[in-house]
Write a structure and sequence with these properties.
The chain is α/β, with parallel strands linked by helices. The chain has 15 helices and twelve strands.
Length: 401
């Protein structure tokens, strides 16, 4: 029997890492929650630092076979289209949508509007998800895509939301009533419809996509508060969300679709480094928090806070963010932001490796892959016969999934 089809033998360093982790797993019944590097560094606050697994995930630089790009001289593509049919696509020049789950005051929203217009004029088109209408003038029309938010507690017709001429809609999904609303809206609205599944994730993702949704939005902050993901990190949510979309496409002819469904990840991703890591784990677009954006703008401003000055700061912040999320893929040897994958990441945390299926530093294999090899060697040595289901049950037990 072969698990994973791998024939490569573990070296001594690999065996040391896995034995140490398995011994701790046997003693405590749970996988390690600290970095192996912390044992060497003996950091006094290692346990508290390990709570934020983003800190234990790094991106590996370009190799000789994939030299880095110069983002100032060479084109680094950030463009993405949202929509599964050519007739209803929305294009973004930066894979970000300004997004918030809490209401913000009108003046703050107006600042965001002004900043997004200025960005669009310079060829930096971002999207905005908003429930509140923006009062525009003849000389200040909206120049960026608006995704009109449809609250779950409302039962309005699609005509009500089309009054503001949005390029897309965002629906909150809670139950079968939400599904019926999606079905009705899909019949009448030609633009892309994104469905926020944070309240029910990962349930019903397949059904939602089958009913014509162009993508899903997953707020990691919300999901990690649910019982199913309690104690887990945003890394696990992003990894599972990408797999949920992959599962939808299993057995389907992907050539029938112009684009796969879009995965928008919001929540704990409000920095360039986290954006890159989230994209490598499978996010297509990042939902950038409106409240965090306003906070950034006020934090570094020396001017009095008014609509115009906040708009200036938001504009500068987003231009800087664009430069960072172009520069990191370029340093990894990619001319396209969307070529990032989990193979570009490494982690020193076994927990992060388990939750995001990320290769371990110095080993270049995930913790699960290493456990698979050990199980494979053991059952072959003992002549044990296991079917694939039994093997997966053993692996789940060993890695405490």
């Amino acid at each position: 029997m072969s698990i994973g089809g791998r024939q490569k033998k573990l070296n001594d360093a690999d065996k040391f890492i896995i034995r140490k982790a398995v011994l701790e797993l046997a003693k405590k019944g749970t996988p390690r929650f600290t970095s192996i590097d912390d044992d060497v560094r003996t950091l006094p606050k290692a346990a508290s630092k390990a709570i934020n697994l983003w800190d234990y995930v790094t991106a590996i630089g370009a190799q000789l076979s994939r030299p880095p790009y110069d983002p100032y001289r060479e084109t680094i593509n950030l463009d993405i289209s949202i929509g599964r049919k050519k007739s209803r696509k929305v294009s973004l020049n930066i894979p970000l949508i300004i997004y918030s789950n809490i209401a913000i005051n009108y003046s703050s929203l107006e600042s965001v509007h002004l900043a997004l217009n200025r960005l669009a004029e310079k060829g930096n088109v971002l999207g905005l998800i908003s429930e509140t209408e923006i009062n525009t003038t003849k000389n200040n029309k909206r120049k960026y895509p608006l995704f009109k938010k449809v609250p779950s507690y409302r039962n309005d017709s699609v005509e009500h939301y089309q009054k503001s001429c949005p390029e897309g809609l965002v629906m909150e999904y809670k139950d079968q009533t939400s599904l019926r609303m999606l079905q009705n809206f899909r019949k009448e609205f030609d633009g892309p419809i994104l469905v926020d599944v944070s309240e029910v994730f990962p349930m019903d993702t397949k059904i939602i996509l089958e009913e014509g949704a162009d993508g899903i939005i997953v707020d990691t902050d919300k999901v990690t508060k649910n019982d199913r993901y309690k104690g887990k990190h945003a890394i696990a949510v992003i990894y599972d969300a990408r797999n949920a979309i992959k599962d939808y496409y299993k057995g389907r002819d992907e050539n029938d679709n112009d684009n796969n469904a879009t995965l928008v990840i919001a929540g704990d991703v409000n920095s360039a480094g986290k954006i890159i890591k989230a994209a490598a784990l499978g996010a297509n677009v990042i939902g950038y928090s409106t409240s965090m954006l306003i906070a950034h703008s006020n934090m570094y401003s020396e001017k009095p806070s008014n609509v115009s000055s906040i708009a200036d700061n938001i504009y500068s912040h987003m231009v800087g963010t664009k430069g960072e999320i172009k520069g990191i893929p370029a340093a990894l040897g990619y001319s396209d932001f969307h070529n990032l994958s989990s193979s570009d990441l490494r982690t020193s945390s076994i927990d992060a490796s388990l939750q995001g299926n990320i290769p371990l530093e110095g080993v270049d294999r995930t913790y699960r892959e290493m456990v698979e090899e050990i199980v494979n060697e053991y059952v072959n040595e003992k002549g044990i016969r296991l079917n694939s289901l039994e093997t997966q049950q053993i692996l789940r037990f060993m890695v405490s999934e």
